[in-house]
Write a structure and sequence with these properties.
single chain, alpha/beta, D-Maltodextrin-Binding Protein, domain 2, three-stranded parallel beta sheet, globular, disordered N terminus
């Protein structure tokens, strides 16, 4: 009888007891850089709610992390230089591979590309990768500069071409980390140079085209500007251009967007901040994303390739067969991966970029 009364009392009190809080995963990723159905599936299968915030430049990401206590469980920095800098600062948690069995799907050769930054790949896995180059509207470029090259960065960085194309809109993404290495390489200098003469040459090259630029936007805004035809030449990430081309086709307004690959190769990395509030959920998310069918959905949506070879056959055919998404090996032979610079050189580049943005 006493047990029956006790059970009845406990049942009556249940509505008054605090419910167990639903676990939350806090993700900080690039704008438009995951398939929405992937987040929905993760929440459905794990019961973990995802709070998903976005950034559009590495500077924004670093600013958030450098302040400390960001509140994020998973971040997506570019391997060089942001991931490398966060590692040096002790800002990242070592990954527990026992919690990431889908690690086995990763391409060892690609993972070796970031091992020079992260020995033994202890702190991050490649999420997506690509190149930096030009998004162009071939018809508008031919109309205004019929003799300008359509397969070279000369189209933007030679002032005589930039001046003629200013009327149809040209832009450079607002990211010193991603633009300056390509400018230095285009000038025949070391992309990682900290030499003051090399940096002056890069600054002069940028200032020479600065009067002709319509905007220096974040990559998210740049995609929209390309897709709507507001720009005819834009320097940005490969996937941004491919996304813009897809949006332009869907809109059916006669805007054709093409991509011209540059030599700058980059890798974005899934990593866990050292002070992540829910590292267990972070490991579950990374393991979930590394499933081939999940990575295939992400590549189909973003138009960026992954480091999971088994995902490629599952990617939508029009994306899988696009050489701008999956460059042929020959196209990558002369590619470079930007390195990590000394702090003094980083500051010099930041000052250079500020002057470029201001146009002086």
């Amino acid at each position: 009888m006493r047990r029956t009364l006790l059970a009845a009392m406990l049942l009556a009190l249940l509505p008054l007891l605090p419910a167990r809080a639903q676990p939350v995963l806090n993700v900080y990723n690039w704008t438009d850089y995951i398939a929405p159905e992937v987040l929905e599936r993760f929440q459905r299968e794990t019961g973990i709610r995802v709070r998903y915030d976005v950034f559009d430049s590495l500077e924004t990401l670093e600013g958030k992390l450098s302040a400390g206590r960001s509140g994020y469980d998973v971040i997506v920095p570019t391997a060089e230089p942001t991931f490398a800098r966060l590692l040096r600062a002790g800002a990242l948690l070592p990954l527990d591979r026992d919690r990431i069995p889908n690690w086995r799907h990763l391409d060892p050769a690609l993972m070796q590309r970031i091992a020079k930054v992260d020995p033994e790949n202890r702190h991050g896995v490649i999420y997506l990768w690509g190149t930096v180059g030009l998004g162009i509207r071939p018809d508008r470029v031919r109309a205004l500069a019929p003799d300008a090259p359509l397969d070279s960065l000369d189209l933007l960085f030679r002032p005589e071409h930039a001046e003629r194309l200013a009327g149809c809109g040209i832009a450079v993404m607002d990211s010193a980390m991603d633009v300056l290495p390509s400018v230095l390489h285009w000038l025949g200098r070391d992309p990682d140079s900290a030499d003051s003469a090399d940096l002056r040459a890069a600054e002069q090259a940028l200032l020479a085209i600065r009067p002709h630029l319509r905007a220096i936007p974040g990559s998210g805004a740049l995609v929209d500007m390309l897709a709507t035809g507001e720009l005819c030449v834009a320097f940005t990430f490969s996937g941004d251009v491919i996304q813009a081309a897809a949006r332009a086709r869907q809109a059916g307004r006669g805007v054709e967007v093409a991509y011209v690959a540059g030599p700058h190769l980059w890798f974005d990395v899934l990593a866990i901040p050292a002070d992540a509030p829910n590292p267990e959920a972070a490991h579950r998310f990374i393991d979930f994303v590394l499933q081939p069918e999940v990575m295939a959905a992400i590549t189909t949506h973003t138009r960026y390739p992954s480091a999971v070879p088994a995902a490629r056959p599952l990617v939508a055919e029009h994306v899988r067969e696009d050489p701008n998404v999956y460059p042929p090996p020959a196209a990558l032979e002369g590619a470079f991966v930007a390195g990590t610079l000394p702090i003094a050189a980083e500051r010099a580049r930041a000052r250079l970029w500020s002057r470029f943005r201001a146009g002086r």
